[in-house]
Amino acid sequence: MTFALDPRQLLDRALQAAALAELDRALARLECAAPGREDIHDARKSSKKLRAWLRLLKPSLKRRYRLVDGLLRDGARHLAARRDIEVAGQTLLRLRRGRHLTAAEFRMLERALARLHPPSSDARDIDAARALYTAARVYLAEAAPAADIAQLRKRLACSQAKCRRGLRRASASRAADDLHAWRKQIKYYGYQCALVAPVIPEALSPVAALKSLGEMLGLHHDFHLLGEHLERCPPQTLPAALRQHAQERVRQRMDRLARDAIRLGEVLFEPEHAPRR
């Protein structure tokens, strides 16, 4: 089931129904006996979709917006530790598969990262996330989002403008924090476009490109986190020469991803300034 409006319903009802269905999917993932990697990933993804929904309807939600957004944000944070551990290993594996590391270097780096992190997040984090998502559902069930097509178009235009501003900041600084902040806006805008596409068909056109851009920026962030983790490894677990070598490979991948993401962003948001191919 996709996160999209049902065009057969009245708009206000369709907006609320889409949010509640997505939150129920997140809760179902966390209520199984032993949530695994995919369960955690999907629950966090649902939180991002719902926070995009909140931003789309912020004017009509008023005080409820900040409250529900905080519950979803804090719930996702409880699930982040396990993902950070897994992502560091997966990103390191990307370097190995790209033949940027030898097998011996990869094994040594993998051991150093394993000693840096706890084995996984425990059940208390899952329980805390579930409780926060359940509280968010109570408030969403009582919400009465009011919007018409014109208002939705206006909010989409606001999201697009935020993406354009984020592009300009990221392009000027190339800083990891600015690229990550831009990525958040890209994700929110993409989810919003997909949500309203059944009632605003033209909103569907940028969704595929936004998804590609979000994934590119997500990979950039993963490499940035890997670099931070490597920096934290104690000297006794990681020789300085190997740390420097791995960090250089990480920087190279980040530079390439940043360049490609900004080029795609210019095509999407500032086509008059996009480089000719």
Automatic annotation (TrEMBL):
Signal peptide: none
Domain CHAD: 8-276
Alphabetized Gene3D superfamilies for the sequence: CHAD domain (1.40.20.10)
A Pfam match: CHAD
Transmembrane regions listed in the UniProt entry: none
Entry protein name: CHAD domain-containing protein
UniProt organism field: Fontimonas thermophila
PROSITE patterns per the UniProt record, alphabetical: CHAD
Highest taxon of the lineage: Bacteria
